Amino acid sequence: SGLVPPGIQYRRDKKGFTVPEDNWMRHEFKPAVQEVFDSPMMAEELGLVDAAKLRNLYSRFVRGGGLLNGRHFFRAFAFEMYLRRFVSHGVA
Predict the structure, then answer these.
(1) How far is C-alpha 21 from the geometric centre of its chain's CA atoms?
(2) Which of 16, 21, 66, 81 could disulfide-link 70, Cβ–Cβ 3.0 to 4.6 Å?
(3) Dist CA 36 CA 5 (whole Å)
(4) 63: left (phi over 0), alpha (psi -120 to 50) or beta
């Protein structure tokens, strides 16, 4: 509110758009994701993620298998980056 004109903000015919998350997570973002998933993860330290399972699932995804998609791994990656930026280590 106040940032976008009301004619745009309340318009009913807005359309969403897709991004190539699967492709990005398998190719362009893979080095950064792999580095984060292979390092000690705060999400695991806090008991929120099983890093070994995450690495296994990500590896299967990169090879084209598994039931998860790029969005799942992007969320895990983004969450870990958030924790590293905004949460102190040792917080439980």
Answers:
(1) 10
(2) 21
(3) 40
(4) alpha
Please choose, from the candidates 53, 55, 49, the residue with its C-alpha nearest in 3D space to the C-alpha of residue 80. Answer: 49
Angle CA 33–88–91, to nearest 5: 105
pTM: 0.79
Q: Which of 58, 62, 63, 65 is nearest to 80 (CA)?
A: 58
What pLDDT was estimated at residue 91? 59
Token duo for residue 65: 């298998």
Read off the pLDDT of residues 5-63 as tens digits, 9 standing for 90 and up: 988 888 888 788 889 999 999 999 999 999 999 999 999 999 999 999 999 999 999 99
Cβ(7)–Cβ(24) under 8 Å? no
> Tokens 């993620």 — which residue?
49
